[in-house]
Amino acid sequence: MTFSLSTLAVAATLAVPALAGFDLQPKNYGHKRHGYAPSKNVSMQYGGVDTSYVNVSLNTTAPAILLEDLSAVSSVDCDDYSVSVAFNSSSAFAQAASAWKLTKNGLLFITNHLGDCDVELERGFFLADSIAANNKTLTIVAGTTKQSINDTATDIEIVFKGLPQTAATTVSNCSSPSLTKRDIVATPSLTIANSLSLPPTVLYSQSPVTLTAEEASISASATLSGTIRYSILTFTLKEFTVDFDTSLSADLELDLVLTAAYNATPKYTAPALEYDVISVPGIIAIGPELLFDIGVAVEVDAGLAVQAKVSTAITDGNVHIDVLNQGAVTTSGWVPTFAHSVNISENAHASIDPFVDVTVGIACKILGGLLDLSVALEAQPRFNNDFTLSAGQSESGNATSATISTDGGSGACANGVEIVSDFEFSLIAIVTQFWSSTIYSVSVPVADECYNF
Ligand SMILES: *[C@@H]1O[C@H](CO)[C@@H](O)[C@H](O)[C@H]1NC(C)=O
Ligand SMILES: *[C@@H]1O[C@H](CO)[C@@H](O)[C@H](O)[C@H]1NC(C)=O
Ligand SMILES: *[C@@H]1O[C@H](CO)[C@@H](O)[C@H](O)[C@H]1NC(C)=O
Ligand SMILES: *[C@@H]1O[C@H](CO)[C@@H](O)[C@H](O)[C@H]1NC(C)=O
Ligand SMILES: *[C@@H]1O[C@H](CO)[C@@H](O)[C@H](O)[C@H]1NC(C)=O
Ligand SMILES: *[C@@H]1O[C@H](CO)[C@@H](O)[C@H](O)[C@H]1NC(C)=O
Ligand SMILES: *[C@@H]1O[C@H](CO)[C@@H](O)[C@H](O)[C@H]1NC(C)=O
Ligand SMILES: *[C@@H]1O[C@H](CO)[C@@H](O)[C@H](O)[C@H]1NC(C)=O
Predict the structure, then answer these.
(1) pTM greater than 0.85
(2) Which atom of ligand 6 lies at the shortest distance from residue 308's CA?
(3) Residue 36 carries which DSSP code?
(4) Which residues line ligand 2 (CB under 6 A)?
(5) Residue 204 CB neighbour total at 10 angstroms
(6) C-alpha–C-alpha distance, residues 216 and 210, integer Å
(7) How high is the pLDDT of residue 397?
(8) Which ligand is nearest to the CA of 154?
(9) Which of 76, 229, 59, 26 is nearest to 152 (CA)?
(10) Which of 172, 424, 443, 451 would bridge 417 by S-S if both were Cys, CB 3.0 to 4.6 A apart?
(11) In angstroms, what CA-CA distances link 379 with 189, 220, 289, 291, 349?
């Protein structure tokens, strides 16, 4: 199917955000100190100035020391073969010197330090094979080799959490004097929003059908959160859940002109917006997406013209998708409001079903591609309209002279076309690599009416 369309006109009405990726910074939002004892449980936070967006927990093979947790560490220096940790308190030094012992798996130092230990926006992992404490300089020097997370951790858990858009501040000025270089330059948000507002536009045109939007406005937003647990040791995904908190609204006025019988679904796909990829380098990259389609499923046995006006809104729909457990998907809040009217110009058998598709998705890549998964939620409000010819009616008419009268739901239309309409709303969860299924649907009868020409 080809979409012949004034794409340029449409693109002009969309505000396309910058495409730059966004790296979260390693942060320590007031971690609890857990003394000097190394631990095989490590938890690290990443985010903006005062908000964590991503928390990462590791089970490490060697007991680990997260140096940023220790307030008496006054400096950390690294070279290719060593990490040197200086203390400004002799009691802290003494505690560390007695607690930091090599195990048979070594001892792991995790740095988060401006300077030579790690790439500025990443934490560094150093496995020690020797330890020396100097009680004169209050310094502990470890002979180390640099490691990747792959080498040092057996399990990883990543929790990401978007904030409602109103709570997120946007780009700050890089050169603002109140920001240090390590402070976040812009605050990313795992909330995405998009709106589309079309001037009168031909959405689709290919003989015998022309679909025009006299008016089309759609807006949607989604806040994304989730948890990923992965066994690095066994390359096994243990958990992947994603929560979508969504709102959407759509108002459409569509004209459909058919010059012959037709049975297909002309559809218009709005130009995709690209969102910043939010990443914790080497650990996770999250790419959100939000897509709109407008279409009409059509089945008519003669040429005719259709005018449809539809609107629908959802203020707060939530979906919890469990990638590994299709049965554990839950939904709440999907209570659509809607309004609709539709006219046809001819006395004919026809099925005319206008719909909007809003797809919100998230692609996650962890550990440099060890795992690559995408999850999407497709919401489809749709108005199904079936026009049925009454016996003996074969004259054609036009919409200008048509009148609609309720026939009390009997379905019998003595003198015209019966129109049966319902509003259908469905939600489809799509785990690109594994499964997709309709996780929610409602169908509400809207009208059963006679349409007299
Ligand atoms: C590590 O943390 C997990 C939960 O995050 C907990 O179940 C486990 O007992 C902890 N292990 C140790 C040794 O503290
Ligand atoms: C990360 O952990 C901290 C402390 O437990 C918590 O306050 C924060 O909300 C967490 N962030 C995410 C993204 O889960
Ligand atoms: C030790 O150094 C750290 C980091 O520079 C500092 O925050 C802390 O106040 C110092 N403690 C003492 C006792 O000087
Ligand atoms: C410092 O270390 C040396 C050599 O290990 C040791 O002889 C000395 O007693 C230590 N001093 C203190 C104050 O712990
Ligand atoms: C670490 O291991 C413990 C015990 O096996 C487990 O409960 C926990 O979930 C693991 N942590 C991660 C991040 O996988
Ligand atoms: C359908 O026709 C009626 C009567 O002429 C008109 O009031 C209404 O606006 C039309 N609806 C649409 C969607 O064009
Ligand atoms: C982890 O291992 C995978 C596969 O061996 C590799 O492609 C990836 O780059 C590694 N990631 C890191 C952070 O080292
Ligand atoms: C539609 O009906 C109106 C009123 O009966 C009439 O004036 C008009 O000519 C008709 N238009 C067409 C295209 O048949």
Answers:
(1) no
(2) 13
(3) S
(4) 45, 52-55, 159-161
(5) 22
(6) 16
(7) 33
(8) 5
(9) 59
(10) 451
(11) 22, 10, 14, 10, 28
Q: Which atom of ligand 2 is nearest to the CA of 160?
A: 13
| Residue of minimum CA distance from atom 1 in ligand 5 | 59
**CA nearest to 22, candidates 44, 45, 48, 43:** 48
Closest to 124 measured CA to CA, from 55, 158, 76: 76
- 75-76-77 Cα angle (round to 5): 125
Tell me the CA distances in angstroms from 417 to 13, 62, 346, 403, 453, one per residue in order.
Answer: 39, 77, 9, 11, 8
Q: Please tell me the distance between residue 451's alpha carbon and the centre of ligand 4 in angstroms.
A: 100
Q: What is the pLDDT of residue 331?
A: 93
pLDDT score at 33: 61
Q: Which helix (H) or strand (E) element contains residue 197?
A: strand 191-198
Q: How remote is the CA of residue 315 from the centroid of ligand 6, in Å? A: 28
DSSP per-residue string spanning 214-234: EEEEEEEEEEEEEEEEEETTT
Cα angle vertex 323, ends 319, 329, to 5°? 35
Name every protein residue with a CB atom under 6 angstroms from any ligand 3 atom.
71-72, 74, 88-89
Q: What is the pLDDT of residue 293?
A: 92
Residue 229: its pLDDT value, please? 96
Assess whether the C-beta atom of 370 lies below 6 angstroms from ligand 7.
yes
At residue 81, the pLDDT reads: 92
Q: Tell me: the pLDDT tens digits for 328-371?
A: 999 999 888 888 888 888 777 889 999 999 999 998 999 988 88
Q: Which residues of the chain have pLDDT under 50?
A: 1-20, 164-187, 391-411
With a Cβ cut-off of 6 Å, ligand 6 is lined by 307-309, 341-343, 399
Q: In angstroms, what is the C-alpha Rg of the chain?
A: 30
Q: Which two tokens stand for residue 306?
A: 């259709």
Q: Give the model's pLDDT for residue 4.
A: 21
Share of the chain above pLDDT 70, in %: 79
Return the SS3 of 377: strand
Enter the tokens of residue 203: 């959405």
